[in-house]
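Narrative summary of target 7.
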Amino acid sequence: MTADLRIDRARLDDRDEPVALLIDDGLIQAVIEPGDTAPPRARSTFDAAGRCVLPGFVDVHTHACFAGSRLDEWQRKLAGVPYLQLLEEGGGIMATVRATRAADEDRLAATLLVRLERMLRHGSTTIEVKSGYGLETATELKMLRAIRQAGETFPGTVVPTACIGHAIDPDVEVDEFVRRTIEQTLPAISEEFPGIALDAYCEHGAWSPEHCIALFEAGAEAGHPIRVHADQFNALGMIEAAIERGFASVDHLEATDANGLRTLARSDTFGVMLPASGFHLDDRYGDGRAFVDAGGNLALGSNFNPGSAPCYSMPFVIQLAVRKLGLEIDEAIAAATASGARLLGLHDRGRIEPGLRADLVVLDTDDRRALAFEFGGNPVIRTLAGGRWVEPPQ
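Modeled conformation, tokenized:
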């Protein structure tokens, strides 16, 4: 048998000696230990030269599908303009909503694909992308179609999420907006995207716990897995609701106290931490150390979005997780790879083992600790997605 690709002298984990990886038909076929005198033939070979090879990063939380820019707003915020004033003047999330409503599906798909490819160059081979900048049925469907369209040509994997509870449209009375979302938007999503995960943002000024639960109960009845943004600024009780109802994840957790983290850690629900938000907004971070020590299932995401986390780079997220969440290096890597794959229900990736999908990154270092130690650049020199190199090389 001749395989598609052999990667020679690849350093995995903390092994003393580099190994070879045999890739065929998009899968890792074998990990060849040193001393094999007759390594299998391959149509092409790549000499990693002792560099670290990791699973491709799994970014479990992004809002990468949107139109418009909020750079002017950010500059005004730096100059001291209060956020509430920006909102009153039409800024914040509603600025993105208006731009996204005005963009057509092809434009949304094209701009999303550019962002996905930049994330891929930083090693993210599996990327979750949420809707949520529509706040009405037609635009939410348009966003999900654009996400699907971009995913069809993206070399990696795109996992869509219907974040139809992202915010409250200020031009619609709150109860009427929630009712319309549940009675109109949700059935339309269920019909065209059956089984897609649902998401909502539980926070003061966004969706209340009561409104979230009403949406999620209707969504669960229609067969949708549930994720929830919660405890970013205020802990409003969604952790208990998530555990009771078997949600897939609770994302953010900056405001979760020690008892809340222990409670979540004792459940099967994942905790997702998003340290790029704290870096960009207010220097607030979830206590990853306490959550992991309590036995929690922790995944990391970039939270890439136009306002609170304009971050393409999962390596930077790992670097923040070690510094700000209290994780050890290998814990942070696992939370950005294997744990994220489990959360998304993709059990064919996130680890380097025979039979798994060949999503791999080659780092420009022979010591994986440098991935977390160094910052400010892109440590990924090559990315393999589904057994094929991302070209051109980084």
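Residues 116 and 154 are 7 Å apart (CA to CA).
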